[in-house]
């Protein structure tokens, strides 16, 4: 069934999402004013790839208050978690996540066409599972997410911190043009596509429409803007090689975002698309698997981020057109990661799962795909410290105040107590159910398996 038709039930999803009760935490609630003491832990310094000596870490409110010996009076007033020499590290961060569309399959949308509350429950449940896999923050780069984020922040749904982009912004026949053949142009025929109505995308042509689309997302609370600058593998109308948006249109998006103190990230694979985006002032590129050395070196000189993935080979169950379009992307992946590392590009990692909820359980395992090009220390730095630096690029539009991706005094208390040493055996982070004994987000215990 056409994608736009499948998404029709989501037009009501978030009106109901606030009514979904928070799911059971599996641990007793902690009083809001209670301190939390991790006693006898080894702090993983992901910024420098070091595991420290045994120490204590005191959390007060939602911040790390002290690392080191804690006075007896402070310890007596705190809830104590016995570390027994285990590793305490920052929460994981997925820099390319789709909070709504990763929770739902197209079959879900068909089966639940008359029951949007069932879709809301699936999204809420997957939100919690994301958090329980140790991902305490995600950068959502496209889809209806604002109400989910508000529900999480209000404690009505459990999930990670979300940096939302809102609806992707696409030209006609671009990667975000999700219309079916029977859906005609809004500009000529006056009716928005269903994908636009439910907040998945804006189809915007020309400087004025691009400005309006960016400002609509900013009005709703976007922390960054996602623009489609090139062809995609999962879209119907655009070959991977095409370049999307003129320089003037792209500059309009950048100017509107910068006026709000934030940035534009673009979906793009090719040299031509990325070079145009760099000229327009874009600060981040999603994907980039078809880039050459010269363009990666240009990105490094300009301080432009590359947020990419560890893609797996196509499966027989995948749509034949998508399998064919993915071939050059998969072939370019190994070259891109190696060249980007050598060029000194600022790198981030994310999964980019869409409409395959069964795949979500492997979110942690996909991190291991980076081992072909990076050491465990480099990988742990990327999925915590470096991804947090990318989140911070939102500046004043960041929805949360404080430092993430580190275990340091004054930083936000998003923490994982891990069985084993990830620096020596990165495999431990691929099994969060077994190896993440305690998960803390914003100073609150969301999992305690001890």
Automatic annotation (TrEMBL):
Q: Superkingdom, according to UniProt?
A: Bacteria
Gene3D superfamilies (alphabetical): Metal-dependent hydrolases (3.20.20.140), Urease, subunit C, domain 1 (2.30.40.10)
- PANTHER family for the chain: ALPHA-D-RIBOSE 1-METHYLPHOSPHONATE 5-TRIPHOSPHATE DIPHOSPHATASE
Question: In this record, what's one Pfam family?
Answer: Amidohydro_1
What's the protein called, per UniProt? Amidohydrolase family protein
Q: Where is the signal peptide?
A: 1-24
Q: What is the species of this protein?
A: Stenotrophomonas mori
Instruction: Fetch the InterPro entries from UniProt.
Output: Amidohydro-rel (IPR006680), Metal-dep_hydrolase_composite (IPR011059), Metal_Hydrolase (IPR032466), Metallo-dep_Hydrolase (IPR051781), OTAase-like (IPR057744)
Q: Which UniProt keywords apply?
A: Signal
Domain Amidohydrolase-related, chain residue ranges per copy: 87-446
């Amino acid at each position: 069934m056409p994608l736009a038709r499948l998404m029709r039930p989501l037009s009501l999803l978030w009106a109901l999402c606030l009514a979904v009760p928070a799911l059971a935490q599996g641990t007793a609630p902690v009083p809001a004013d209670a301190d939390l003491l991790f006693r006898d832990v080894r702090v993983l310094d992901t910024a420098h790839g070091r595991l420290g000596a045994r120490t204590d870490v005191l959390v007060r409110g939602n911040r790390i208050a002290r690392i080191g010996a804690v006075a007896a009076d402070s310890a007596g007033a705190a809830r104590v978690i016995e570390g027994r020499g285990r590793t305490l590290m920052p929460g994981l961060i997925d820099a390319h996540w789709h909070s709504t569309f990763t929770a739902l399959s197209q079959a879900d949308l068909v089966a639940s066409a008359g029951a949007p509350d069932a879709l809301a429950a699936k999204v809420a449940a997957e939100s919690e599972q994301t958090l329980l896999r140790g991902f305490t923050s995600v950068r959502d780069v496209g889809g209806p997410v604002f109400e989910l984020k508000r529900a999480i922040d209000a404690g009505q749904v459990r999930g990670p911190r979300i940096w939302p982009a809102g609806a992707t912004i696409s030209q006609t026949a671009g990667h975000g043009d999700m219309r079916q053949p029977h859906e005609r142009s809004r500009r000529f025929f006056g009716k928005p596509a269903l994908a636009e109505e439910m907040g998945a995308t804006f189809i915007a042509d020309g400087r004025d429409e691009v400005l309006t689309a960016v400002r609509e997302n900013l009005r709703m609370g976007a922390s960054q803007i996602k623009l489609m600058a090139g062809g995609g593998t999962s879209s119907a109308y655009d070959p991977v090689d095409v370049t999307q948006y003129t320089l003037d249109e792209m500059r309009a998006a950048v100017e509107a975002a910068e006026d709000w103190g934030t940035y534009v990230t673009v979906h793009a694979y090719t040299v031509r698309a990325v070079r145009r985006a760099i000229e327009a002032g874009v600060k981040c590129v999603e994907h980039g698997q078809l880039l050459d050395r010269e363009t990666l070196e240009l990105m490094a000189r300009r301080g432009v981020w590359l947020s990419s993935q560890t893609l797996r080979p196509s499966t027989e169950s995948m749509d034949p057109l998508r399998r064919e379009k993915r071939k050059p992307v998969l072939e370019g992946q190994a070259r891109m990661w190696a060249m980007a590392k050598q060029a000194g590009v600022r790198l981030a990692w994310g999964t980019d799962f869409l409409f395959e909820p069964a795949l979500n359980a492997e979110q942690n395992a996909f991190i291991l795909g980076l081992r072909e090009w990076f050491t465990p220390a480099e990988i742990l730095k990327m999925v915590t410290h470096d991804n947090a630096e990318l989140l911070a690029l939102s500046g004043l539009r960041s929805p949360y105040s404080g430092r993430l991706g580190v275990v340091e005094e004054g930083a936000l208390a998003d923490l994982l107590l891990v069985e084993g040493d990830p620096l020596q055996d990165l495999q431990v982070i691929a099994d969060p159910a077994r190896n993440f004994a305690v998960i803390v987000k914003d100073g609150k215990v969301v999992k305690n398996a001890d």
